Amino acid sequence: MQQLGTFLFSGDIMSPDLRARLLKIMGTTLTLIALGWAGDLHRKMGLVLYTEQFLAIILGLTIAFTFLLTSQKGDKSKGVLWYDALAAFLSITISVYIAVFFASLVNELSYSPVHLVVISSIIVLLVIEGLRRMVGWPLTIVILSFVLFGMFGHLIPGQLSGRQVSFSRLFLYLGLDSNGILGLPLIVGATIVIPFIFFGQILSKSGGSDFFTDLSVSLMGRFRGGSAKIAVVASALFGSISGSAVSNVATTGVITIPLMTKSGYRARVAAAIEAVASTGGQLMPLSWGRPPF
Known about the structure:
By secondary structure, the chain is mostly helical. The chain is built from 13 helices and 2 strands. Helix 5 crosses helix 6.
């Protein structure tokens, strides 16, 4: 019994080396698929695809990546626990199934077939658990509260009372509908955020990010709180060409956040300053003259 418990909670099913290789393969594949879709490569190859088919693959790879990355509390010197490997396998398998058969699945959603209810429920649960692992309990509790309200909102008296929705209908909507998980937030992440981060990293590796940081240091380095001012100026300059807060953080933040922590700022304060500065940076006039909205 003790051996069974040890295997259930600490039994590795994947070596650290295989884990590292799979993470690299998944990350590369995810980026290439996102860039290919953003470049309309599938149409140039004569393929006509639903957006949801593309999003299903992106979602499956992201969930699998999350569970492999966070297994053993993110300790890369250890392998992957069996239940994390199972979650990663389920996410890939389900996403491929949805992508391949989505055209026919759309017509079946209104009948709430059992297999689609099971698939969509697994997707929702995996997304919630992946969210908890990556960002913690606060946002997870908010999401769970809305899900529970959808299920039991009709029992709440007064003006906050909601309409009764069956379990199967709710989870089908969340998991497979184009207004649920396979909707606008995932579209933005897959078609805008990933390409921007990719090209931002290219700019960073080629020295472009250092140029903006060096220019900011020369302007603000001699003032009190100079490292925070450097972050603001660098984010403003980089935001004028990226137009993306996430890309801004991923490029200038790599330099400005450590710079602020070395100057005495707490890590959370430095991250907050960079996040706010990058959000404001995306409002800067774009270099090619097009308005940001």
